[in-house]
Structure formats: structure tokens, C-alpha cells
């Protein structure tokens, strides 16, 4: 077949990690948020002048040979059928020969087969260097309705379809992400609450060892903290209807953490309250069990969001192409700067006095993403936002399509929608919207990993 007649590959395949790394900025420090906030202030002034059923069991649908070969595994349909016929031990799908349907578990098995038996020039498995931990991605903005949960959910699903193993942590007591992923959360003990409580309890234990040596009275541990010390990842991580997406869910009682965390901090001023989630991910081996961890945050810069931002390697900030959302996002960056710079200043005075290394928050990459974009009405506004945010901005603007609307009404992600329920062109356009968002995210992800491996090699050398 002539190359020009071959259908184009999805945009997230055959990305070069080295080229992706050249597009990355230097690591982002807290002062960069001040710059972004200042740009937004100028932008505000400029613009002002211009005048499932959640109560049921969720099951992931099957995928047709057309979908698999168009979006998931870069082989021709006829070749896939030949491989299946020649390898009866591989998943054969359900249905008639001309219309086979496969589970995602089947697709993941087929990916592994092609990765070991297929041509080396094709990307059957996504780039993932060995010896480096999972990347933690926080999706945050303190304005509600900007698409945080849908962005996090669709990126998680995109990554799962691409072959990555994903953990999603819902930090919003509204529990929308938990509903999308079909999670069941009985109480706060199946959320991140006991994980942060465990971190505080360990800090108290360490303080008590010091106090014992000095003959001072101990800080008592109540029943909640004693129980939290026994909490393990398996106690809070649950499987979902996606074979390679796990979940730590949320429910209304999680909001209690916003009141309890400052109380704990008052009880032990030396406890770094922002590190509870970071320490869980690092110390409990979670970062070694997954490729990507997505953190879906509440629409507020509270203690749970601060934990998420402190744990994150990559920060994604969704917003709509409107004055109010641009204005709110600028204030969000301003609060990020104020909050984290304040933590740095407060901690580093003590660190310097003790001759210890100073605390410095850094993020690999920060990206603002325009969501629910309508090119016919919002292009001028989006261009203004792009100009003021500069390198903080995703290049691609995520369109709102009929597919997105219908999937949202059903508490589903668009990747869970059956294309047979849509006009084929509608499905392809709707899917492309999120595929392109994922492609840009994936380029950032693999670039960060590649840069990490190069820096690790230099450090080893």
C-alpha cells in the first residue's frame, strides 16, 4: 500500500521523548506563580476595558476491531485478524468473525504480544523508563465548573487505553470522580483521610521519642490516630471497572479533613501538614506500583488541595475561555504563590538555623488548559488568555462536542461511550478533542521522564 493512502496515526503515538524534553521549561519555582498572577492582573485590566447510573455497577464496554486498530494498536484490521487466526491462545474476542469485540484486558494482552512480536518501529506500548517513579499529576483550580474532574477523568482513561497503569485519587468531598469511576466509599476511612492522619501520627511518635529522651511528657495519640497507624494502601485503594485504573475515592465526610488538619498542626507545630499525601505515595511504595497518579482536587485552595499541589510533579489548571474564569485563574496563581512562598519562608528560617537544606517547592511543568471551547464565539478571548499566560498555556484548546455533552449526562467518560450510539463523524470529532489533549499531556509526561533519566545518569556519573 502506498504510504500516502495509509490512515494517519493517533497524535499520541511515536512521540520522541528526547524531542519532548527539549520543549520543557526549566523546573517551575514558586516565584513563577507570582509572574503568572501579575500577567493575569494585567489581563483582567485589559479585558475590563474592553467591556452511569451512579447507584449501579459500572462495566467497561468492549472495543471493536475498528476501534482497536484505529486508536489503540497501530496495525491494520486485516493484519490483526491474521495474527488472531495464527495465535489461537490470544484473546479472540466475542461476536462473528467480521465483527469481533474485545475487553480492555484483551487489548492489553494484544498490546504485549505485538510489543514482543511486532515491528520495532511501531509504538505498541507507551514510553515508560525503568527505575523512575510514577509521575503525580494534580488537576486544580479553585473555581468550580472549569472542567477539573472531566479533564482528570479523561486523561486517566486516555492513559489507561494507551497502556499505562493509573491511580486516581479523589480529594473532592463532592465525589464526582468517584461516581465516574464507579467507586464505593462508605466513610472517610476509605478516603485519603486516614493516610494524612497516619502521617501526623508518625510525626507525633517521632516527637514523643525526643520527649522521652528529654524526660518530657508525651503527646497522646487518640483512637483515630492509633487506627490510622494501621492503615495500608490496600485498605483505601479500590479496583474500578477499568482493569488498569485504581481509585482512592471520596465522600462527604472527607471534608472533615479541612478542619482536622489545622488542629493537628496546632498540636505539633513541627508537623509539615502539606507533606501527608506526598509521604504516603513515596513511603508506602505507591509510586512504584503505577505509572501515573492523577489527583482530582476540590474547588478551593484548602489543606487537601495544598497536599495535592505539594505532591504533584505536573500541575494542570483547566479554565474556560471567559473573563471570569481567566480572572479567577489569575487569582488562583496568586494564592499559590502566596501559600507556597509563605511555607518556604516560614520553614527555611528554621532550616537555616539548624544548618539543614532549605525547602523548595518545584513542579516539572505547569499547564493551563482551555476547556469547553467554542471556536465560533471564544477565539478572541482564548487568544488574549494565551497571550497573557504564555508558556503556562496548553497549545490545544479542548472543544466542546455533542459527544462530550451526552457522555457527561450519563456520568461517563467519552471513552466509555459506545460509538454505535453516535453518528460516526460525531464520535471521531468528539474523541479527537480528548485525544489531542492527551497527546499534549503525554508529550509533557514522557519529556519529564526522559529528562529525569538524563539527570539521573549525570548524577550517577
UniProtKB/TrEMBL annotation:
InterPro entries: AAA_dom, DNA_Partitioning_ATPase, P-loop_NTPase. It comes from the Bacteria. Residues 134-324 form the AAA domain. PANTHER family: COBYRINIC ACID AC-DIAMIDE SYNTHASE, P-LOOP CONTAINING NUCLEOSIDE TRIPHOSPHATE HYDROLASE. This is AAA family ATPase. The lineage of its organism: Bacteria, Pseudomonadati, Pseudomonadota, Alphaproteobacteria, Rhodobacterales.
